[in-house]
Amino acid sequence: SPDLAERIANLAGANYQETRVRAVNGVSLKVAEGEVLGLVGESGCGKSTLGRMVVGVETPSGGTLSWRGVALEQMTTQQRRAWELEVQMIFQDPFASLNPRMRVEQIVGEAAVIHGLIRRSERRDYVADLLTRVGLNADVMSRYPHQFSGGQRQRVGIARALALKPRLIVCDEAISALDVSIQAQVLNLFEDLRQEFGFAYLFISHDLGAVEHIADRVAIMYLGRLVEIGTADEVFENPRHPYTRALLAEAPRLDRRGHSFTPIKGEIPSPLNPPPGCAFHPRCPLATAACKTGVPDLREGRDGRRTACILEQEEVA
Ligand code: SF4
Ligand code: MG
Protein backbone atom coordinates (compact mmCIF):
# COMPACT_ATOMS: atom_id res chain seq x y z
CA SER A 1 0.00 0.00 0.00
CA PRO A 2 1.16 3.59 -0.59
CA ASP A 3 0.99 4.18 3.11
CA LEU A 4 3.55 1.48 3.78
CA ALA A 5 5.83 2.66 1.02
CA GLU A 6 6.00 6.06 2.64
CA ARG A 7 6.95 4.62 5.96
CA ILE A 8 10.20 3.07 5.07
CA ALA A 9 13.68 3.37 6.42
CA ASN A 10 15.93 2.63 3.52
CA LEU A 11 19.65 2.59 3.78
CA ALA A 12 21.06 2.18 0.33
CA GLY A 13 24.63 1.98 -0.79
CA ALA A 14 26.04 3.20 2.48
CA ASN A 15 29.78 3.18 2.83
CA TYR A 16 30.81 3.88 6.35
CA GLN A 17 34.50 4.36 6.85
CA GLU A 18 35.80 3.61 10.29
CA THR A 19 39.56 3.69 10.48
CA ARG A 20 39.40 3.28 6.74
CA VAL A 21 37.40 0.07 6.96
CA ARG A 22 34.35 -0.23 4.84
CA ALA A 23 32.18 -1.77 7.48
CA VAL A 24 29.08 -1.68 5.34
CA ASN A 25 29.13 -1.78 1.61
CA GLY A 26 26.24 -1.42 -0.80
CA VAL A 27 23.64 -2.57 1.67
CA SER A 28 20.04 -1.71 0.94
CA LEU A 29 17.43 -2.41 3.57
CA LYS A 30 13.84 -1.40 3.98
CA VAL A 31 11.84 -1.71 7.13
CA ALA A 32 8.09 -1.53 6.74
CA GLU A 33 5.72 -0.08 9.28
CA GLY A 34 5.17 -2.50 12.15
CA GLU A 35 7.49 -5.23 10.90
CA VAL A 36 10.35 -6.94 12.65
CA LEU A 37 13.41 -7.22 10.44
CA GLY A 38 16.11 -9.43 11.91
CA LEU A 39 19.69 -8.59 10.94
CA VAL A 40 22.01 -11.52 11.51
CA GLY A 41 25.72 -12.11 11.21
CA GLU A 42 28.87 -12.90 13.15
CA SER A 43 30.43 -10.13 15.22
CA GLY A 44 32.41 -7.72 13.09
CA CYS A 45 30.20 -8.17 10.02
CA GLY A 46 29.03 -4.56 10.12
CA LYS A 47 25.52 -5.08 11.46
CA SER A 48 26.02 -2.78 14.47
CA THR A 49 27.41 -0.09 12.20
CA LEU A 50 24.36 -0.42 10.00
CA GLY A 51 22.08 -0.12 13.02
CA ARG A 52 23.87 2.96 14.27
CA MET A 53 23.57 4.55 10.84
CA VAL A 54 19.81 3.97 10.83
CA VAL A 55 19.47 5.89 14.12
CA GLY A 56 21.95 8.54 13.04
CA VAL A 57 24.61 7.82 15.67
CA GLU A 58 27.03 7.15 12.81
CA THR A 59 27.02 8.99 9.53
CA PRO A 60 27.49 7.05 6.33
CA SER A 61 30.10 8.50 3.98
CA GLY A 62 27.81 7.63 1.09
CA GLY A 63 24.35 6.32 0.37
CA THR A 64 21.03 7.52 1.66
CA LEU A 65 18.88 7.05 4.68
CA SER A 66 15.20 7.74 4.14
CA TRP A 67 12.50 7.94 6.72
CA ARG A 68 8.86 8.01 5.64
CA GLY A 69 10.07 8.33 2.08
CA VAL A 70 12.21 11.42 2.63
CA ALA A 71 16.01 11.28 2.40
CA LEU A 72 17.86 12.72 5.37
CA GLU A 73 19.52 15.48 3.34
CA GLN A 74 16.13 16.55 2.01
CA MET A 75 14.38 16.77 5.35
CA THR A 76 12.93 19.94 6.76
CA THR A 77 13.88 20.74 10.35
CA GLN A 78 10.52 19.39 11.41
CA GLN A 79 10.91 16.12 9.48
CA ARG A 80 14.37 15.66 10.91
CA ARG A 81 13.08 16.18 14.41
CA ALA A 82 10.32 13.64 13.77
CA TRP A 83 12.90 11.12 12.55
CA GLU A 84 15.06 11.70 15.63
CA LEU A 85 12.12 10.92 17.88
CA GLU A 86 10.53 8.16 15.84
CA VAL A 87 13.67 6.06 15.48
CA GLN A 88 15.05 4.93 18.81
CA MET A 89 17.76 2.50 19.81
CA ILE A 90 18.10 -0.09 22.53
CA PHE A 91 21.68 -1.03 23.26
CA GLN A 92 23.43 -4.22 24.22
CA ASP A 93 24.77 -2.85 27.47
CA PRO A 94 22.01 -0.99 29.27
CA PHE A 95 24.37 0.10 32.02
CA ALA A 96 26.69 1.94 29.67
CA SER A 97 23.77 3.69 28.01
CA LEU A 98 22.07 4.94 31.21
CA ASN A 99 23.48 7.99 32.95
CA PRO A 100 24.62 6.72 36.39
CA ARG A 101 23.95 10.08 38.07
CA MET A 102 20.34 10.35 36.96
CA ARG A 103 17.31 8.89 38.62
CA VAL A 104 15.08 6.69 36.48
CA GLU A 105 12.35 9.34 36.31
CA GLN A 106 14.74 11.71 34.60
CA ILE A 107 16.39 9.02 32.44
CA VAL A 108 13.05 7.85 31.08
CA GLY A 109 11.05 11.08 30.99
CA GLU A 110 13.33 14.04 30.46
CA ALA A 111 13.74 13.76 26.69
CA ALA A 112 9.95 13.69 26.30
CA VAL A 113 9.78 16.97 28.26
CA ILE A 114 12.58 18.56 26.23
CA HIS A 115 10.96 17.57 22.95
CA GLY A 116 7.61 18.90 24.09
CA LEU A 117 5.75 15.58 24.06
CA ILE A 118 4.71 16.13 27.68
CA ARG A 119 4.88 18.93 30.23
CA ARG A 120 7.31 18.75 33.09
CA SER A 121 4.38 18.50 35.50
CA GLU A 122 3.25 15.37 33.64
CA ARG A 123 6.61 13.62 33.78
CA ARG A 124 5.99 11.65 36.93
CA ASP A 125 2.75 10.07 35.76
CA TYR A 126 4.12 9.54 32.26
CA VAL A 127 7.15 7.67 33.57
CA ALA A 128 5.05 5.68 36.04
CA ASP A 129 2.88 4.45 33.18
CA LEU A 130 5.87 3.52 31.01
CA LEU A 131 7.58 1.65 33.83
CA THR A 132 4.46 -0.40 34.39
CA ARG A 133 4.26 -1.24 30.70
CA VAL A 134 7.79 -2.64 30.71
CA GLY A 135 7.09 -4.74 33.80
CA LEU A 136 8.69 -2.57 36.48
CA ASN A 137 7.16 -1.02 39.57
CA ALA A 138 6.31 2.65 39.20
CA ASP A 139 8.12 3.42 42.45
CA VAL A 140 11.53 2.48 41.01
CA MET A 141 11.56 5.88 39.30
CA SER A 142 13.45 7.41 42.21
CA ARG A 143 16.30 4.91 41.91
CA TYR A 144 19.64 5.11 40.11
CA PRO A 145 20.79 2.63 37.40
CA HIS A 146 23.28 0.84 39.69
CA GLN A 147 20.39 -0.25 41.89
CA PHE A 148 19.00 -2.54 39.20
CA SER A 149 19.82 -5.96 37.78
CA GLY A 150 20.84 -6.25 34.13
CA GLY A 151 17.34 -7.29 33.06
CA GLN A 152 15.74 -4.42 34.97
CA ARG A 153 18.19 -1.95 33.49
CA GLN A 154 17.29 -3.15 30.02
CA ARG A 155 13.62 -2.57 30.87
CA VAL A 156 14.52 0.98 31.90
CA GLY A 157 16.28 1.41 28.54
CA ILE A 158 13.15 0.15 26.79
CA ALA A 159 10.94 2.57 28.76
CA ARG A 160 13.27 5.41 27.78
CA ALA A 161 12.86 4.49 24.09
CA LEU A 162 9.06 4.17 24.44
CA ALA A 163 8.84 7.63 26.01
CA LEU A 164 9.54 9.21 22.63
CA LYS A 165 6.72 7.32 20.86
CA PRO A 166 8.98 5.56 18.37
CA ARG A 167 7.83 3.94 15.13
CA LEU A 168 11.09 2.02 14.65
CA ILE A 169 13.29 0.65 17.41
CA VAL A 170 16.77 -0.55 16.56
CA CYS A 171 17.77 -3.29 19.00
CA ASP A 172 21.50 -3.99 18.85
CA GLU A 173 22.20 -7.30 20.60
CA ALA A 174 19.61 -6.09 23.09
CA ILE A 175 19.34 -9.38 24.95
CA SER A 176 22.85 -10.81 24.44
CA ALA A 177 24.34 -9.41 27.64
CA LEU A 178 21.49 -10.67 29.83
CA ASP A 179 21.37 -13.92 31.79
CA VAL A 180 19.94 -16.68 29.65
CA SER A 181 17.00 -17.01 32.05
CA ILE A 182 16.14 -13.33 31.52
CA GLN A 183 16.59 -13.27 27.74
CA ALA A 184 13.28 -14.96 26.95
CA GLN A 185 11.40 -12.59 29.26
CA VAL A 186 12.84 -9.51 27.59
CA LEU A 187 12.25 -11.00 24.13
CA ASN A 188 8.61 -11.59 25.05
CA LEU A 189 8.39 -8.02 26.30
CA PHE A 190 9.62 -6.82 22.89
CA GLU A 191 6.84 -8.84 21.26
CA ASP A 192 4.15 -7.60 23.63
CA LEU A 193 5.16 -3.97 23.14
CA ARG A 194 5.08 -4.33 19.40
CA GLN A 195 1.57 -5.78 19.62
CA GLU A 196 0.53 -2.91 21.83
CA PHE A 197 2.17 -0.01 20.01
CA GLY A 198 2.57 -1.34 16.46
CA PHE A 199 6.11 -0.09 15.91
CA ALA A 200 8.77 -1.82 13.85
CA TYR A 201 12.06 -3.33 15.03
CA LEU A 202 15.37 -3.67 13.35
CA PHE A 203 16.49 -6.57 15.50
CA ILE A 204 20.25 -6.97 15.23
CA SER A 205 21.56 -10.18 16.72
CA HIS A 206 23.96 -13.04 16.28
CA ASP A 207 21.42 -15.22 18.12
CA LEU A 208 19.48 -17.12 15.46
CA GLY A 209 17.04 -18.52 18.01
CA ALA A 210 16.03 -15.06 19.18
CA VAL A 211 15.72 -13.83 15.61
CA GLU A 212 13.60 -16.78 14.58
CA HIS A 213 11.35 -16.09 17.55
CA ILE A 214 10.72 -12.44 16.81
CA ALA A 215 11.43 -11.61 13.15
CA ASP A 216 9.02 -11.41 10.21
CA ARG A 217 11.87 -11.02 7.75
CA VAL A 218 15.54 -11.83 8.09
CA ALA A 219 18.61 -10.29 6.48
CA ILE A 220 21.91 -12.17 6.69
CA MET A 221 25.09 -10.13 6.62
CA TYR A 222 28.64 -11.23 5.96
CA LEU A 223 31.68 -8.94 6.00
CA GLY A 224 29.69 -5.78 5.39
CA ARG A 225 27.39 -7.15 2.69
CA LEU A 226 23.93 -8.65 2.69
CA VAL A 227 24.09 -12.21 1.40
CA GLU A 228 20.47 -13.24 1.83
CA ILE A 229 17.16 -11.65 2.71
CA GLY A 230 13.71 -13.18 2.93
CA THR A 231 10.82 -13.97 5.21
CA ALA A 232 11.78 -15.72 8.42
CA ASP A 233 10.06 -18.88 7.13
CA GLU A 234 11.99 -18.81 3.87
CA VAL A 235 15.34 -18.20 5.45
CA PHE A 236 14.99 -20.65 8.32
CA GLU A 237 13.13 -23.41 6.46
CA ASN A 238 14.89 -23.22 3.16
CA PRO A 239 18.09 -21.18 3.41
CA ARG A 240 19.67 -20.52 0.05
CA HIS A 241 23.01 -18.90 0.69
CA PRO A 242 25.84 -21.24 1.78
CA TYR A 243 26.66 -18.85 4.63
CA THR A 244 23.08 -18.95 5.93
CA ARG A 245 23.19 -22.75 5.71
CA ALA A 246 26.45 -22.83 7.64
CA LEU A 247 24.98 -20.60 10.36
CA LEU A 248 21.98 -22.94 10.64
CA ALA A 249 24.27 -25.95 10.82
CA GLU A 250 25.66 -24.43 13.99
CA ALA A 251 22.17 -24.11 15.45
CA PRO A 252 20.72 -27.54 14.55
CA ARG A 253 17.74 -26.96 16.84
CA LEU A 254 16.54 -24.29 14.41
CA ASP A 255 16.92 -26.41 11.31
CA ARG A 256 13.27 -27.36 10.94
CA ARG A 257 13.77 -29.63 7.97
CA GLY A 258 16.71 -31.49 9.45
CA HIS A 259 19.11 -30.56 6.67
CA SER A 260 22.68 -31.68 7.13
CA PHE A 261 24.49 -28.54 6.16
CA THR A 262 28.23 -28.26 6.63
CA PRO A 263 29.10 -26.14 9.65
CA ILE A 264 31.11 -23.03 9.03
CA LYS A 265 34.85 -23.54 8.86
CA GLY A 266 37.64 -21.15 9.73
CA GLU A 267 37.64 -17.70 11.27
CA ILE A 268 35.85 -14.66 9.93
CA PRO A 269 38.44 -12.77 7.85
CA SER A 270 39.49 -9.26 8.82
CA PRO A 271 37.26 -6.61 7.30
CA LEU A 272 40.51 -4.66 6.77
CA ASN A 273 41.50 -7.16 4.16
CA PRO A 274 38.42 -8.96 2.86
CA PRO A 275 38.95 -11.84 0.45
CA PRO A 276 38.50 -10.95 -3.23
CA GLY A 277 35.45 -12.07 -5.17
CA CYS A 278 32.76 -13.55 -2.95
CA ALA A 279 34.11 -12.69 0.50
CA PHE A 280 32.74 -15.98 1.81
CA HIS A 281 34.73 -18.16 -0.60
CA PRO A 282 37.55 -19.22 1.79
CA ARG A 283 34.92 -20.71 4.10
CA CYS A 284 32.37 -21.88 1.55
CA PRO A 285 32.00 -25.64 0.92
CA LEU A 286 30.64 -24.95 -2.58
CA ALA A 287 33.21 -22.42 -3.73
CA THR A 288 34.53 -22.73 -7.28
CA ALA A 289 37.23 -20.80 -9.12
CA ALA A 290 34.61 -18.33 -10.36
CA CYS A 291 33.81 -17.35 -6.76
CA LYS A 292 37.29 -15.89 -6.32
CA THR A 293 36.83 -13.19 -8.92
CA GLY A 294 33.26 -11.96 -9.28
CA VAL A 295 31.58 -10.20 -6.36
CA PRO A 296 28.00 -11.53 -6.36
CA ASP A 297 25.29 -8.89 -5.88
CA LEU A 298 22.18 -9.52 -3.88
CA ARG A 299 19.76 -10.44 -6.66
CA GLU A 300 16.26 -11.71 -6.91
CA GLY A 301 15.88 -15.15 -8.43
CA ARG A 302 12.92 -16.39 -10.45
CA ASP A 303 11.16 -17.50 -7.31
CA GLY A 304 11.58 -14.12 -5.67
CA ARG A 305 14.26 -15.29 -3.25
CA ARG A 306 17.12 -12.84 -2.85
CA THR A 307 20.68 -14.08 -2.38
CA ALA A 308 24.20 -13.01 -3.23
CA CYS A 309 25.69 -16.28 -4.49
CA ILE A 310 26.95 -17.11 -7.95
CA LEU A 311 25.54 -20.64 -7.76
CA GLU A 312 22.03 -19.47 -6.91
CA GLN A 313 22.14 -16.99 -9.72
CA GLU A 314 23.37 -19.57 -12.23
CA GLU A 315 20.51 -21.88 -11.32
CA VAL A 316 17.88 -19.32 -12.15
CA ALA A 317 19.70 -17.75 -15.12
FE1 SF4 B 1 30.03 -19.93 -1.99
FE2 SF4 B 1 30.66 -19.08 -4.43
FE3 SF4 B 1 28.18 -18.74 -3.51
FE4 SF4 B 1 30.21 -17.33 -2.51
S1 SF4 B 1 29.43 -17.24 -4.58
S2 SF4 B 1 28.61 -18.31 -1.38
S3 SF4 B 1 31.85 -18.82 -2.53
S4 SF4 B 1 29.21 -20.69 -3.91
MG1 MG C 1 28.03 -5.67 17.30
TrEMBL record:
Domain of life: Bacteria
GO terms (BP aspect): peptide transport; transmembrane transport
InterPro entries reported in the protein's UniProt record: AAA+_ATPase, ABC_transp_ATP-bind, ABC_transporter-like_ATP-bd, ABC_transporter-like_CS, Oligopep_ABC_C, P-loop_NTPase
Gene Ontology MF terms in the entry: ATP binding; ATP hydrolysis activity
Pfam annotation, one family: ABC_tran
Main location: membrane
Membrane topology of the entry: Peripheral membrane protein
Subcellular location, record wording: Cell inner membrane
UniProt-listed SMART domains: AAA
UniProt keyword Transmembrane present: no
Domain ABC transporter: start-end pairs: 6-248
A GO cellular-component term linked to this record: plasma membrane
Xref: SUPFAM superfamilies: P-loop containing nucleoside triphosphate hydrolases (SSF52540)
Record keywords, A-Z: ATP-binding, Nucleotide-binding, Transport
Family listed: Belongs to the ABC transporter superfamily.
Protein name: Oligopeptide/dipeptide transporter domain family protein
